[in-house]
Write a structure and sequence with these properties.
heterodimer, A: SH3 type barrels, 4 helices, 32% helix, B: 629 residues, Rossmann fold, 2 domains, six-stranded mixed sheet, 7 strands, 65% helix
Chain lengths: 100, 629
């Protein structure tokens, strides 16, 4: 619960709106059973990005949050995974509610 | 200058060792070598099982990503001719960052395979396509093996192989390797690519006929009656401009049921108790009561002590005159009476039962759920969820667990896991015996568990702080939950038991030899004199010293020795506690040490040993002082 609040504070909408599209928030923003679409992944290392790509984590992919505690568990169209909080901070999504 | 060039030529990695004179002969030899087929693909898509079906050799296959950490080779027959089949570790990208990727890239470059089988999980094909296309550029014949097509069909994903073939321009074979479906077609495709006996033109014509949709429908072996007209995926990815209601990911009822169980298992309120009960049940009932109790008693007392040892002695006395040889084989520490009895009658049943249980957990896909639950706690020890597998396995056999640390990504994590395994995780044989020693005193047993647990955690947390570097990001997959297949588990368990017999039994024989050597030469006494101040400071009697010395050779052997001392009454309950703690934390057995040196190198292994010796001695000393107060 703590973590979600922190993540919300970290998501500075105005700062992000120009770079990542309006309304993109960190992945940890989603609550269980909520959905979103990946907007961007803020990682530099190409090997890391390749790995995420092969796990189905690419911009445009639909994410369904399964659990947020003890760590994030999520479902993508072709994969089913769990990840660190640090990594989740780098992945930005458009929550379902903001897509028009 | 000439000399220098000669030297550099000599050291060139591509130069053959035998010199240029033998080159021509070697070339001839190459042409006789069987063609090589490489299995390539993501982790946990069924490469190893396919390898097994193609070669007949069995390798350990599990429902956990990253089981194949080595390149496995086997001989298979395709179209009546020998081919060499190479199984590579599963990789996520052809980048060469992780050791598995490096190994696979090396194999790709060095082996010059005649054919690559890219194995993909049918239900997750889209995310595997980028790698397939990367490999396709390599100009080596390629076949796409769509494995686990049944699981995809359960999710409502259907494929048209012909359309897929036309779009990708490579042959496609749909298989279900667990049920051996589609293997004949795969073999036919492999044969036509490996041994093209016809001219290229006729082959192409034949291929076109075979892959045309009309023909395909009659020869294809899809089990489902439904055929989609085109290759289509169930959920289109929504873009930014998608309508407000996102299309649902299609989960069929069967998957939803599995998903409900999955959600229960990863719910901490339900998951932690289940994990605790499962492991407790495994260690206490399976290993303790059934394994260490019933089966060991039956094997050791009835079969070994009752039948084999007396007969062996009788035979020896009849046929062998030399006293030395008789002692060597059938004496108190003889090869048969001690080496074989300890390994086959005491340790083997315990380890087999553990492997059986572990195989069950692995096959039904529970372990990644356990990884999920332990992800955060293990983070404090510098590991991630994957670390749960070697650590739990360490309760079975530390030697095997050290091998399994390869599935961790960075050297840092591997070091941490190896250290923790050698420090505080007693293997099943050792733990069963230690519990048997302390069982009459429940309070001491609890104290033992508590102390070891606290020390283990403290050492892990401290080392995580001190060790330079940081853990990398982790993002791990949940494989699907499925009903365990009994035959698969039995095969896997027997493969592991065979491994155990091959690796460990020689060590027991060796130990009995070393033991006898020390006894004959009377070397134990000076060693005891040398070590006795250390042991006296821990409040332990002198009799425990040989137990510890041989405990280094085999940990469970030391526990057995301790058990003997306890029965004789030489050891008071309190010193039994101290020695149990020290023994738990003390050096790993020599088998584990050998593997450790092989995996981590001599420098890191020495560092680990030094840290362990310090921790074990300090813990024993503190415990001695505390209990004497």
């Amino acid at each position: 619960m703590m973590f979600r609040r922190k993540a919300r504070e970290k998501a500075d909408y105005r700062k992000l709106s120009g770079v990542f599209g309006k309304g993109a928030v960190p992945l940890a923003f989603l609550r269980p059973d909520q959905r979103g679409v990946i907007a961007s992944i803020r990682l530099q290392d190409s090997a890391d990005l390749h790995r995420l790509k092969s796990l189905g984590l690419i911009p445009g992919a639909l994410v369904v949050m399964e659990r947020v505690w003890p760590v994030l568990a999520l479902r993508l169209p072709y994969s089913h995974l769990f990840m660190d909080d640090e990594l989740a901070q780098k992945i930005f999504i458009f929550p379902e509610s903001t897509i028009k | 200058m000439k000399k220098l060039r000669k030297k550099s030529e000599k050291n060139h990695p591509l130069r053959l060792k035998n010199g240029p004179g033998l080159l021509s002969r070697r070339r001839e030899k190459v042409s006789f070598n069987p063609k090589k087929v490489l299995l390539l693909g993501f982790p946990n898509v069924g490469k190893s099982l396919l390898f097994h079906h193609l070669t007949g050799a069995y390798v350990v296959v599990s429902n956990y990503p990253g089981t194949t950490v080595e390149v496995t080779r086997g001989k298979g027959k395709i179209g009546g001719r020998d081919v060499e089949i190479i199984d590579t570790p599963g990789i996520y990208a052809l980048k060469g960052k992780t050791p598995e990727e490096k190994v696979t890239l090396k194999v790709l470059a060095e082996e010059k395979p005649a054919l690559i089988l890219f194995v993909a999980e049918a239900a997750a094909l889209p995310r595997m396509l980028p790698m397939l296309l990367e490999i396709k550029n390599d100009q080596i014949p390629l076949v796409l093996v769509l494995n686990m097509i049944d699981e995809a069909q359960k999710r409502g994903i259907t494929f048209d192989e012909a359309v897929l073939e036309n779009k990708l321009r490579i042959p496609v074979a749909a298989t279900v390797s667990t049920r051996k479906i589609g293997l004949d077609k795969l073999k036919r495709v492999m044969e036509s690519l490996l041994f093209p006996s016809l001219s290229l033109e006729t082959l192409r014509q034949r291929h076109e006929i075979a892959s045309s949709p009309a023909n395909h429908r009659t020869t294809g072996e899809r089990s489902s009656g439904e055929k989609s007209p085109d290759f289509r995926l169930p959920a289109d990815l929504p873009g930014k401009g998608a309508s407000s209601s996102l299309p649902a990911v299609n989960f069929s009822p069967a998957v939803a049921r599995g998903n409900r169980l999955h959600l229960w298992l990863i719910n901490p309120w339900f998951g932690y108790p289940v994990a605790f009960l499962l492991l407790f049940f495994c260690f206490y009932y399976f290993l303790g009561v059934l394994g260490a109790g019933t089966i060991v008693r039956l094997l050791e007392e009835k079969i070994f002590m009752g039948i084999i040892t007396p007969y062996c002695r009788l035979l020896l006395e009849q046929y062998i005159n030399s006293f030395l040889l008789r002692e060597l084989i059938g004496g108190e520490y003889g090869l048969v009476t001690m080496g074989l009895r300890y390994s086959l009658a005491i340790v083997l049943p315990i380890v087999s039962i553990f492997f059986l249980f572990f195989g069950l957990l692995e096959d039904c896909g529970y372990l990644p759920r356990l990884s999920y639950l332990l992800h955060r706690p293990l983070g404090y020890l510098g590991l991630d969820g994957r670390g749960a597998v070697p650590l739990v396995m360490g309760f079975g056999c530390g030697t095997m667990a050290v091998l399994v640390t390869r599935l961790l990504e960075t050297p840092r994590e591997r070091f941490m896991a190896t250290f923790l395994l050698s420090l505080g995780i007693p293997c099943s044989a050792q733990m069963g015996l230690l519990i048997a020693i302390l069982a009459p005193y429940p309070a001491l047993l609890l104290l033992w568990g508590f102390t070891c647990g606290v020390l283990f955690t403290a050492a892990g947390v401290a080392l995580n702080r001190l060790y330079p570097g940081k853990r990398s990001y982790s993002c791990l997959e949940f494989p699907p939950l499925r009903f365990p297949q009994i035959t698969a588990i039995l095969r896997k368990t027997s493969a592991r038991i065979l491994w155990y017999l091959k690796e460990i039994v020689p060590f027991f024989v060796l130990i009995s030899l070393v033991f006898q050597f020390l006894m004959f030469k009377n070397l134990v006494v000076p060693l005891e004199d040398f070590l006795s101040p250390l042991f006296l400071s821990l409040g332990l009697p002198r009799e425990t010293i040989p137990v510890f010395i041989f405990g280094f050779l085999r940990r469970d052997y030391a526990s057995a020795g301790l058990y003997d001392l306890m029965q004789q009454g030489t050891l008071s309950p309190v010193s039994a506690l101290v020695s149990a703690i020290v023994l738990t934390l003390f050096f790993p057995c020599i088998a584990q040490l050998t593997v450790m040196i092989k995996e981590r190198g001599i420098k890191e292994s020495l560092l680990i040993l030094l840290l362990i010796a310090l921790a074990a001695y300090t813990a024993g000393f503190m415990m001695h002082i505390l209990t004497s107060i």
